[in-house]
């Protein structure tokens, strides 16, 4: 019996030792699974003037919206979209019944003021009227004359004439339509003698990197196998609330280029002369990217991954410039980030 008891005790101890050893091995496996292999690149600040890619629509530098100064009923629009027009050509008229009545009314008031002033002047010479009465009559005549000038001016702007020779781009109203003062009726441009420009929208970082005079090249499907040279000629001083971008105008160097039309799309590559400091990283290292910002994983100890927000700069092929957010980072995780979360344990591999 004593031998059996000793054998049982040793057997139980053996199971206990085996179980402890098995538990220790499992812990090691868990630790290994929690460590994610990644590749890391060393971060360093670089000075560069990366090309900026943008797209937009062609227009000219003298596009004009034409309208009636006074509201009313459109009598007739004499042109249609695409028509060529010459400077001073009559393009549209508004019904002048109301404005003509106003002109006639003010003209009658002016004639009466003339008679009153003539009468007061004679009476003043005969010492019948006072100096004040004569001066009041003169003032009334001057007021009536200015009122007549004003209504005649309005009458003249009851019609629309071409401000320059060019083409009708858009017809924005029709005959018989009631329009208010200043409502756009026609859009024209002077494509024959104007400079073509490409209007593009950029992010705030891209906008800040450019200055007036920076060069650009433009391509468009309307002119295949052609590259157009251009320069930055205007930078908007405020954001476009509809698109959320900052407008930039690129003027073509060749003002006599043929084959373009207002509204055509073009692609531009702008070369800023101003250098900017930043970090150039692989595009694949970026995730959750928005218009101006995104996220990356960094590590400063090669043991733990940290998720940080970064500010985006120019995109160049498969690389992107980071203009902010990596100042306190030493290493960027460029491979394996799909399996990471903030604080994940990592193992750096080559």
Give the topology, please.
Layout: H1 2-34, E1 36-42, E2 46-48, E3 52-60, E4 64-67, E5 72-77, E6 84-85, E7 90-94, H2 97-125, H3 131-156, E8 159-161, E9 166-171, E10 178-179, E11 184-189, E12 196-202, H4 204-209, E13 215-219, E14 228-240, E15 245-252, E16 265-271, E17 276-282, E18 293-299, E19 306-316, E20 319-324, E21 331-335, E22 346-348
Parallel strand pairs: 1-22
Antiparallel strand pairs: 1-21, 2-17, 3-12, 3-16, 4-11, 5-7, 5-10, 6-9, 7-8, 9-11, 12-15, 13-14, 13-16, 14-15, 17-20, 18-19, 18-21, 19-20
Helix pairs in contact: 2-3
Q: From the 3D structure, determine the CATH topology of the largest domain.
A: Elongation Factor Tu (Ef-tu), domain 3
Shape: elongated
How much beta, percentage-wise? 35-45%
Number of strands: 22
The CATH homologous superfamily of the largest domain: Efflux pump adaptor protein, beta barrel domain
Average pLDDT across residues?
85
Structural class: alpha+beta
Count of folded domains = 4
For the sheet with most strands, the description reads: 8 strands, mixed
The radius of gyration over CA amounts to 39 Å
Sheet with the most strands: spatial strand order? 2-17-20-19-18-21-1-22
């Amino acid at each position: 019996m004593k031998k059996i008891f000793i054998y049982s005790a040793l057997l139980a101890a053996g199971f206990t030792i085996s179980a402890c050893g098995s538990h220790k091995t499992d812990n090691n496996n868990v630790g290994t699974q929690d460590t994610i292999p990644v590749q890391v690149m060393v971060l360093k600040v670089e000075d560069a003037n990366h090309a900026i890619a943008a797209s937009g629509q062609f227009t000219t530098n003298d596009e004009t919206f034409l309208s009636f100064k006074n509201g009313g009923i459109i009598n007739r629009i004499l042109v249609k979209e695409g028509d060529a027009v010459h400077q001073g050509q009559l393009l549209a008229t508004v019904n002048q019944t109301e404005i003509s009545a106003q002109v006639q009314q003010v003209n009658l008031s002016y004639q009466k003021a003339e008679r009153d002033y003539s009468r007061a002047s004679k009476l003043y010479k005969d010492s019948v009227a006072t100096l004040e009465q004569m001066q009041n009559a003169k003032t009334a005549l001057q007021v009536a004359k200015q009122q007549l000038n004003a209504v005649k001016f309005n009458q003249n702007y009851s019609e629309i004439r071409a401000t320059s020779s060019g083409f009708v781009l858009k017809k924005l109203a029709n005959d018989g339509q009631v329009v208010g003062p200043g409502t756009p009726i026609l859009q024209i441009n002077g494509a024959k003698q104007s400079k073509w420009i490409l209007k593009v929208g950029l992010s705030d970082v891209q906008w800040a990197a450019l200055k007036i005079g920076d060069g650009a090249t433009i391509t468009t499907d309307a002119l295949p196998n052609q590259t157009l040279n251009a320069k930055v000629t205007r930078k908007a001083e405020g954001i476009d609330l509809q698109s959320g971008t900052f407008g930039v105008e690129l003027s073509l160097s060749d003002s006599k280029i043929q084959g373009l039309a207002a509204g055509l799309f073009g692609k531009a590559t702008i070369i800023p002369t101003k250098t900017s400091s930043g970090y150039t990283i692989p595009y694949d290292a970026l995730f959750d990217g928005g218009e101006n910002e995104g996220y990356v994983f960094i590590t400063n100890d090669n043991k733990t991954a940290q998720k940080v927000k970064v500010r985006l700069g120019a995109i160049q092929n498969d690389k992107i410039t980071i203009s902010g957010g990596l100042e306190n980072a030493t290493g960027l995780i460029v491979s394996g980030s799909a399996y990471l979360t903030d604080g994940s344990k990592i193992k750096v591999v080559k």
